[in-house]
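Blinded run. Sample ID left blank on purpose so nobody reads anything into the name before looking at the predicted structure. Input follows.
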Amino acid sequence: MRKRIIRAVIASLIVVLLTTVMVEAALWFIDPLGIATYVYDLSTMVTIASAEGYTLPPGVHTLRHWSYTIDEFGNRIMPRSESACIIAFVGDSVTFGQGVNDDETFAYKIALENPGVRFINLGKIAYNIANVRRAVESNPANGYLYFISDNDDGLPWERPPQEWGQPRELPPRLSAVRYYVAAFQERSSASVTDLDAFWRDLEALRARGDVLMFAMGSPLGAQVIERYPDIAPIPHWGRAMSISWIDGHPNAAGHVYLLNALRERVTDFVTKRCGV
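Blinded prediction complete.
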């Protein structure tokens, strides 16, 4: 009787272990909601201190399903141009192009359509409007293109100096189950915002006269458009053109959508600022 109980316990433990391994493998390799990919990719990114918040080490960085290339100035690469007129993209992860390859971002595609201008992409993942303002003030250009995202009223991206040069979030182990649990917990937590600071920074950027702005279709974007009707609204690209369930950033098709939505105003702006 005792041996039978012991065998039953051992068998149950084996079943639990095998089930755990199978669930882990399914979440990691199949990743039905894209959570393991999303969290792992962010956790492996190395950041370096800069005037506006942070920058990234130069080189090609290959993640699970996409790669990005950083130039010698810490910015995502753009088509080369010898033009003396510089137009800078500023913004957060949408402008950076999180989740898509270098030549798939809307910023890269706009640059290809305007070879007579030198474009730089100052967008960084997790930047808010305070970081954007610092980027504009720290990087002289003939004009700036700012795509206002739905979380740009958050707190500025900061981290303790002793953590510079380390991945953004050091994962204690490669565990897709842990990533899924953490992702659901984060989605249920309230975001921290500073709307007063957002309006101050937005007004400062508008006062410059050299920043063309677009507002993403979102609650924050609706407030921006209501206060400043001259800022062009850009409807959200939708779930079908997002990276995954958890990662709402535009995929390659979403960036083509943004290219088409921005093209006319950007062309007019570039012509005025650069005379081309």
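Unblinding after everyone has recorded impressions. The longest strand covers residues 143-148.
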